[in-house]
Fold:
Amino acid sequence: MKLWWRIILPVILVAGVVFVIVVFSSATDKDPEEVVVVKHTEYRSPFIPDSVAFAGEWLPLNRFDVKEALDRELLSNAYFHSQTMRYIKLAPRYFSIIEPILKEKGVPEDFKYLAVAESGLNPRAVSPAGAVGFWQFLKGTAQEYGLLVNSEVDERYHVEKATYAACDYLLKAYQKYQSWTMVAAAYNAGPTGMARQILRQKNESYFDLLLVEETGRYVFRIAALKLIMENPELYNFYISEDEKYPVITTRSVEINGTVEDFADFAKEQGINYKLLKDFNPWLRQTYLKNPGAKKYVIEIPVLEKVES
Structure:
């Protein structure tokens, strides 16, 4: 028995040493290509150009407070990825409608970014205060500028008509302020609120006024949206043209009488009720009594036929 132990024990010891050497070698002599490199995410401050203009008026970026205010809005929008990406994708569809109207009325094109700030390019947007549509009109202001608002029709939801009304509002404000930045600020704060602060602070420059936070950030937010949406790659948004939402061709149908059921009307036009309301959100009911026999123009999307 002792003889066997004398033979087996050295074998066990040698095998153990070999095992340890193999394990240690495999742990320390790995192929460099197999080493896992853990990368960290970097967050960088968004780019601020040396000069930034809104509606032809330069922001005084030489002032620390102005530059920091713009930086805040660039940070908020450049890093709110899902929202800002959606704005960039929606822009071709709605800018194609409002840009020609702004040009026709003589309003600077940069005000299309005010619509982005106001409604997020959502024609159905409704604020807690009851402001409605693309340009966020309150009922009284909408009616003052010629928009029809009743239980059946609310033209604040009509992108084209609301844009014309917004242009009239903006042009009237420009006659008063002679400054487009002040016009934009007053669009947010209202003429009464701006007049109160101008009188209190004895100053008529947006960049010199102490305003409530929403209005104080408002023009800077518009400027930030302009910077990002005009140069998305500069702010790390890479969206190809085919990823943007297309402009949908429509045909116009005039009505000047009663429509008993818009679901039936939609089927007659070769679409469904959902699409009818998507393209005409200003129609607020499932019917139209139209007692005054007013003429309305309904847009019907022209859909590509799918081959079966």
About this structure: Residues 53 and 123 are 27 Å apart (CA to CA). Strands lie at 53-54, 57-58, 250-255, 296-301. Confidence is low (pLDDT under 50) at residues 1-5. The longest helix spans residues 2-28.
